[in-house]
Write a structure and sequence with these properties.
The chain is an all-alpha fold and 234 residues long. Helix content is 61%, strand content 2%. The chain has a two-stranded antiparallel ribbon.
C-alpha cells in the first residue's frame, strides 16, 4: 500500500473497518452474502438496523438530516459562549472593577464546567441515551444566559451563570459527532460526519475567535447593559 501503510495479510479483517459491498471471494465469517443481513442494493448496511420502527436507522433520511441540522445549529450557538467574553476583557474589567485574572476566570470556570459535566454526560449517554442530555443542555444554556444577562454588576452571579452555561454546553461538545453514527449507515455518513465536525464547539470556536474585533467594536459602541445582553445571548 502507498504512503508507507503496511499491507494486511490476505483475507484478514482490518480492525475499525466494515465490509459494505458483497464480494464472492470474501470468506463467510467476514460477512459474505447472508440472508440475515440487510442491504441497500448490493451494499451491506452497517450498522445493521433492527426491525423496530423507533430505531433511528429506520427513520426517513429527511428526518435524520433535520435532527442533525438542529443539533449542529445549537452546537454553533452554544460554542460561541466560551470565547465570547475574551474580546471584551478590558471593558469588562473596568465595568466590574476587577483585574484581568478575575475576567479570565469567567472563561476558565466556564470551561471547567464543560470538562466536568462532559465526563458525567458521556457516561450517562451510554446508559440512557443522548436525547435527555441535549434537552437538558439546551435548558441550562437558556437559564445561564438569562441569569448572566440579569446579573448586573454582580461578578459572582455572572461567574455562576458562566459555569451553568458550561455545563449546558457539554453535551454538544461531546456527543454530536457520536450521534451521526446513531443516525446514519456508514456508506452515507461521510458528508454528514464532515458537516457535524465543522459545527462542533471546537471548530465553531475558531470561527468565533475570528470575529473578536467585530464583537469588541459592538461592545465599545453599545450601552453597557444592552451590551451585556448581547454577550450573554450570543
Amino acid at each position: 500500500m502507498g504512503l508507507g501503510v503496511l499491507d494486511v495479510p490476505h483475507n484478514e479483517h482490518v480492525p475499525g473497518t466494515s465490509f459494505v459491498l458483497d464480494d464472492a471471494s470474501r470468506p463467510p465469517q467476514a460477512g459474505g452474502t447472508n440472508s440475515r443481513l440487510k442491504y441497500d442494493g448490493s451494499i451491506i448496511l452497517v450498522p445493521q438496523p433492527s426491525d423496530d420502527p423507533n430505531d433511528p436507522l429506520n427513520w426517513p433520511l429527511w428526518k435524520r438530516d433535520t435532527i442533525l441540522a438542529i443539533l449542529s445549529i445549537i452546537s454553533i450557538i452554544a460554542s460561541t459562549l466560551s470565547p465570547l467574553l475574551a474580546a471584551n476583557t478590558i471593558t469588562l474589567s473596568l465595568y466590574f472593577r476587577r483585574d484581568f485574572t478575575a475576567m479570565a476566570l469567567l472563561t476558565g470556570y466556564h470551561l471547567c464546567g464543560v470538562g466536568v459535566a462532559g465526563v458525567i454526560f458521556v457516561a450517562s449517554a451510554r446508559v440512557w441515551g443522548k436525547r435527555h442530555l441535549y434537552l437538558l443542555g439546551t435548558i441550562l444554556i437558556i437559564i445561564g444566559s438569562a441569569w448572566g444577562g440579569a446579573s448586573g454588576r454582580n461578578y459572582k452571579s455572572l461567574l455562576w451563570a458562566r459555569i451553568i452555561q458550561g455545563v449546558g454546553l457539554a453535551p454538544f461538545e461531546a456527543l454530536v459527532n457520536a450521534s451521526v453514527g446513531d443516525l446514519y449507515f456508514v456508506h452515507v455518513s461521510f458528508v454528514r460526519e464532515s458537516f457535524s465536525y465543522r459545527t462542533t464547539p471546537g471548530q465553531a470556536k475558531n470561527c468565533s475567535n475570528s470575529m473578536d474585533s467585530r464583537k469588541n467594536l459592538i461592545h465599545d459602541q453599545c450601552h453597557t447593559r444592552s451590551n451585556r445582553w448581547i454577550v450573554e445571548h450570543g
